[in-house]
Amino acid sequence: MPTIGILSLQGGFQEHLTALARAAASLSASAASAPAFTPTPVRTPADLARCTALLIPGGESTTIAHLAAESALLDPLRAFVAAGRPVWGTCAGAILLADEAVAASAKKGGQALIGGLAVRVHRNHFGRQIESFVADLELPFLGGDEQQQPARPFSGVFIRAPVVEAVLDPAAVETMARLPGRKTRAGIDRPSESDGDAEAGDIVAVRQGNIFATSFHPELTDDIRVHVWWLGEVAKYLEKETA
C-alpha cells in the first residue's frame, strides 16, 4: 500500500491530508487498478523513509526549512528528491524545491532550500497577505471531458505566492500553467524573466521529471482535480518502478 507523505512541520498540511484522502478515494472509485494510497504526516526521517511520494505544503518557507533542519530532515529531503521520487510543492513548498529563490527584501543569511527543481522563484511576488487573490487558471494537464472539451478553469488561490522568475534548464523544466494579466509594481513585484514568453503571464506551475510545483493552493478549494491528477502521476511512477 503506497504511502504518500505530507511534510507536516508548519503550514497547510492538514488541508492537504484531507484533500489527498478524498483524491485517493476518487481515484480508487474511478479505476479498479489504482493503488490504495495512504496519506500520512511526515515529521521525522523515519516517517520520510516509509514514503513513496511526498507533498510539501504552503506556509512559511523559512520556518519550514528551519524546522526541517532542527528535525534532521533537510538532508533526507534532498536525498528523497535526488532519488527521483515523486514530489509536489505548493507555494512555500515550491520555493523550497527551487534551486534558487529571491525576494524583494532578502533576509540575512538567505533561504535554506531543498532544491532539485531547475528554476529561480521570486518569493511573495504579488505582495503581502492582504493582497492575496483567487484567479481562474487554465490547467490543460487536467484533461477534458469525453466530448473533448477542455478542462474547466481551476480556481487558483494565491497567498503571498511565489512565481517562477526564470527557468534555469529549459530543456528539463516544463511549464504547466501561467497566470496572465497581473500587473507588476515597482519595489514589490518585477516582471518574470520566465522562459522568454513573459507576455503570456507569470509561470505558476512547473514540472521537472517527478518534481511538480505550484504557486497556488489547490488544497484551499473543494476541487480535488490537481490532487487526483498528481496521485495518477504517482501511480504511473509505481508502474514503471515495478515493471
From TrEMBL:
GO terms for cellular component: cytosol; glutaminase complex. GO terms for biological process: pyridoxal phosphate biosynthetic process; pyridoxine metabolic process. It holds the Pfam family SNO. Signal peptide: none annotated. The active site is at residues 91, 217, 219. Keywords: Glutamine amidotransferase, Hydrolase, Lyase. It comes from the Eukaryota. Belongs to the glutaminase PdxT/SNO family. This is glutaminase. It comes from Verticillium longisporum (Verticillium dahliae var. longisporum). The lineage of its organism: Eukaryota, Fungi, Dikarya, Ascomycota, Pezizomycotina.
